[in-house]
Amino acid sequence: MPLSRKVLKMKKAKRVFVIVLDSVGIGALPDAADFGDEGANTLRRISASDKFNIPNLISLGIGSIEGVDYLPSPKPLAKVMRLREISRGKDTTVGHWELMGIVSKTPMPTYPDGFPEDLIAEFVNKCSLPGVLANKPYSGTVVIDKFGEEHMRTGKPIVYTSADSVFQIAAHEDVIPPERLYELCRAARELLVGEHGVGRVIARPFVGEPGSFKRTDRRRDFSLMPPEPTVLDKLSDAGYDVIGVGKISDIFGGRGVTESIPTHGNTEGIKTTLLLMERDFNGFCFINLVDFDMLYGHRQDVDGYAAALSELDAAIPAMLERLGEDDVLIITADHGCDPGDDSTDHTREYIPVITYRKGEEGASLGTADGFYTVGRAVMELLGACEG
Question: What's the CA gap between 247 and 261, in Å, rounded?
Fold first, then answer.
């Protein structure tokens, strides 16, 4: 069942807000075992925490979504459903791309044994570096604890990866300032194409002294360019406003975004969203709230994850109050990152879709194939295509 305007039974909208709760999956997909994620369920995991308090999401209908039978399910105020991923992946780039219409049939390359030595040598030469440290899969906090002191002594950046298709560069801000770190990432991005076309090159600046290093909020993502036009391109080409909040512009290589507003964490992302809801524009506002994934999912912090979702929930009444009759709010996700499983990596899960418009009757719409049905609904709600 597609999440189209016909199914939603909604008239055309002037503004559509899509909030991606980065990694808030709602249960393992049928092929999750192929990815090592059998039994994963991010939302269920955090629902057991004492910090979990989401009365507004429950009122909207999150407990009425198929498979979410562990939460209360009063008559939903919104139209709710879950979506099954079609792409062969479980990360931010693949998830967001599919939300906006691109199915990645071939997995992006991963490097469980680290990057090839010839590739690293080319990167070192291109950037005139003394070398690199690590070059293995690591947790981001573990790798700076292990190599941070040597990095400060030698000036060599820390290069590492994970189970995802990423090339990450960590550097102390006093050794390699953020702007220089971004230059290194841009150089790596130029190299990492073709067979080595990883989904993202990520800058990971940190500060502090050995034994007490801390990553800063100056992270930057440098994504592979989408291989074909996305919903963002189609809307901006048609004259609509396309506002990206958080790391949206980074994920799409800046393409199709008419205005980018970077943010530093969920709290700022939520405040920015509320401000944008008070602004007059015609089109699409696409928001990513990254802390669920970056601060809590990967760090296996169940209580922190639950508290972050509760923070978002507390802002929902203010969001709904700011919506006009010609506005639609869609709350969704891009993958899972179960904070209580045996891995620090993303998990292959269904995602929720909660679609709210004032005056519209809520309903549970079951399950559909393809995250791209969110992008299709945005296009149809704005009248940019016929559904």
Answer: 8
